[in-house]
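Recall from the previous chapter that SMILES is a line notation for molecules. Here it describes magnesium ion.
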Amino acid sequence: MHDGRGHRTLPTVEDTEALGRELAAQLHAGDLVVLDGPLGAGKTALTRGIAAGLGVQGRVSSPTFIIARQHRAGAEPGAVGLVHVDAYRLGGDLDELDALDLDTELDDAVVVVEWGLGVVEHLADRHLRVLLRREPESDTRTAEWEWVG
Ligand SMILES: Nc1ncnc2c1ncn2[C@@H]1O[C@H](COP(=O)(O)OP(=O)(O)OP(=O)(O)O)[C@@H](O)[C@H]1O
Ligand SMILES: [Mg+2]
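With both inputs in hand, we obtain:
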């Protein structure tokens, strides 16, 4: 369905999660996904869809104190894990980012980083960049995605 880039209008949170499931179909261990968009744009909702598509364990949430959460691979053969990072609280602190050891995590998992634009791209040769936008006073979001690098 994708040739690696696209654009979609997302009227409901279910549509955002469904896009995440579709994007997961093109993700493999070692892939980096960078999510950008304002507060409440649906970055965590999209990550929930990616997690569902990969079939990983554990519930995706938007943790207050945890910067990165690991989700182990599901039982399917060839299943990969997911590391879900919320870089908002890092505030661009590169030492803290280094401490997460994401390049090691990338050896055998998909890494999704909310608020990762301009912060984590150096961790991989290329990344899937997803920009989410929010229509004022409406549930509708739009997503634009592209492999960069
Ligand atoms: N079309 C939509 N897509 C995604 N979320 C939607 C949509 N319509 C309504 N919502 C609601 O908007 C909120 C999106 O929250 P979510 O935590 O996914 O955003 P976020 O971008 O991760 O925010 P933050 O920057 O705080 O991490 C949820 O409450 C969700 O139910
Ligand atoms: Mg979030």
